[in-house]
Request: fold
Amino acid sequence: MSKPAFVRGAALLTAFALTLSLAACGDNEPASAPQRSGQPAAVDLPGEYAGSGASSQQSADEAWIASFHAGHPSSRISYDPAGSGAGVTAFLSGAVVWAGTDEPLTQDQVEASRSVCATGSAFDLPVYATPIAFAYNLPSAGLNQAGRHLKMDPATVARIFDGRITRWNDPRLVRLNPGVDLPDLPITVIHRSDKSGTTKSLTSYLKAAAGDAWPHKPGENWPNDVGQGAKGTSGLVMTLTQAEGTFGYADAAQTTGLGTVAVKVGEGYEPASAKGAAKALDHSSFLPQPAGSLRQVIDVDYASQTPGAYPVLLVSYDVVCQAYKRDPDRRKATFAKAWLTYLASEDGQAQAASNAGSAPLSPAVRERIMGSVRAIEGA
Reply:
């Protein structure tokens, strides 16, 4: 069944909290297919509507907030990219209307959400996805040039990250890159030092695609003592650029000026791209859920062999309630419904794509998301 993919991009507002006047729309039921404009007739919703969570969504949220604001100036919406765990915690305490998270909710979190949700429990919907690039810094060898990619198979990537390939002219790298003058330099692995959804997605890919070459379980924490840690995407990318011979992983949109790997998929090699990530998601599936559940969780096919697919990617979710406690006039629910209707619209996806470089969700995936959004009990 087809799946989502997204893009990232330029910052439009602040780095830590985005606040703009927005009019939330309400009262109108979405059409049976995803809307093109995503801007239903405005309904006056004075007040503030806050979200918090994954920093991966920040650039997309900046674009969405700016565009949503143009048609809905009477309300204020903010998003604090404090991290997935902090965002879910804030949501479960009732401090924010929605959370952004790079990890689907755990069953314990679903049950805990009954303290803030008036109808059933919270549900998570995929709203953002981005390809994760394997990035390196080899400028003296001319290998940072745009459009030029070293080739690696999943097992080679795994052995580098696990400290078993340690030099750039290792015979295995030379064999994969005939005609490329690889320098006799040590490889310095740079990984995230903080808990990270990007690390979880990367290690999930390595576990699925590299076989025995990657002996570690998927997780948000880096699993070995190889290399040097750096906090956050910006810290990791900055560290990559500070020395020759570094190798790491980051949101592809943030790796400008660095070289990136084309990974082996099937019989070919695919560079990190939104188009490739979208194709990988199109060949993934949704996890089955209990009857009546509104959750839509993607089971990414990290081991995809589909030509043109790039299966190293991060999917990020928004978490909301069908109805909220302490929301007597249903303003929170009405806002959540309008906001997610916009994110799942053609226009919302196009805004994220043009400003954040994401791969827009396919119509089939957007319609699946809207099946859950329509159940939100707005005014």
